[in-house]
Amino acid sequence: MYRLIILLAALLFLSVFDAEAQRRGATTYESLLQRTDQPAAYIDHIVIPAEDGPAQLAVMFRLDYDFIPFLRARPGMSTPSGDAEYYAPIRMGVEIFEGQAPTSRRASAATSVFRDTWQDTVWVDSFEATKSRFDYVQGHTLTTLEPGQYHYELQLARAGSVREQPSTRRSFRVPDYSESENAEFIILSEYEISGNSINATLLNYGNNVLYGQDYSLLIRIPKEENLEAETLTLNLHRMASGESTTVGDVRHSIEITDDKIIHFNSASFRESSDGFHLSANLQEEGVRYAHITIPNQDFENARYRLRLMADDKEEAIGERTINSQWLDMPVSLYNLDVAIEMLRFIVSDSELRRINSGSSSERERKFREFWSERDPTPDTEYNELMAEYYRRIDYAYQNFTSLQTPGYNTDQGRAYIVYGPPNNVERRLPANAPTREVWEYPNRTLIFEATTGFGDFRLVSESS
Fold first, then answer.
1. Residue 452 domain-assigned (yes or no)
2. Whose CA is closest to 42, among 327, 238, 272?
3. Is the CB of residue 279 less than 8 Å from the CB of residue 192?
4. Cβ–Cβ contacts within 10 Å for residue 155, how many?
């Protein structure tokens, strides 16, 4: 009951704080947290040549644990281990139809050509594990299809009931490999070509790639006789913020030379504990693919469009939009105003005013310059020092927030942000005196004293 009262009081505090911020028209850390703390599910599909038919379709999905509603194991329930305390029954139904996906949910049903169901039960040993964004369950269905236009529908059931939201619908095309077709992209985390075979691991984050990490592509290219181009080029465009159709500036360009071309007629697809894998034997008379590695660690966390261009065509012969995703991006970095405002713990008031003055583009430039000057790895886009600083703010909020004060504004929170985690923490309970916490660092010792019984501590001593 005591913990429930504390939780309700904290929720009331956050709602009042956020309502006041919205009244002022400002974006706050708390409002960002509510908008960005969303669970994730990833869905993707690939079409590859099949040994026993024209092509095979693999539909893949990945569900983070915080997306899945877990149930507490009942007494006497059979569990896979003695430590398992929570479980989640999951069922994914996949159905493939002929034709494009209908624009309306009420449209008449198309002809169904394939139906399958994947199901599993996930077990974890703690409540904290049920909220993990880095643990996940994955699954797939695989079938062979004739050339043509199709769409599939996915229906997810969690915790024994069908989700209230509509099923997922996506259109795709199975190519006739002997005819002229648009190029298609398969996103890989890694691949290896050895002798006459290729082995690849799919990234499996839907239309997302991971910020700060290179990735690779397999690009199916139309048959050579269907192209008059002498040169094929892959361009990577950065999309403007908030734009979904306008192609921005080219950030990277790769010419598709002969050493990047392979051919294969059939491929095998398999799932393992570490992901989904594709392998094929290379054959000169097979379907033509380009294999390319993208130096994503050099690019900003943004949205991009891949476009394969032929020098005899004005329009792209294939394109795909992707998002660079920073899975554990600190909350403050989702908004420039909040990110700049949170610099107050390490910069002077005058420096903060300087960075925060001017237009949005000027403020962003000065903010980037501030961290660029302190980047321990300037040859990469990812700035470890900036990421660590804003992660400390998240930690301070999560661990030191009280009924009266957000964690980053408490004495303990500010100390953690500036000095990082202490080498040792000792809690002392002196007789007839407030509780004390002693934080020891290599070059300083901080002593905090409790001011209430609800986790509030103030700094009472600092010695070097």
1. no
2. 327
3. no
4. 15
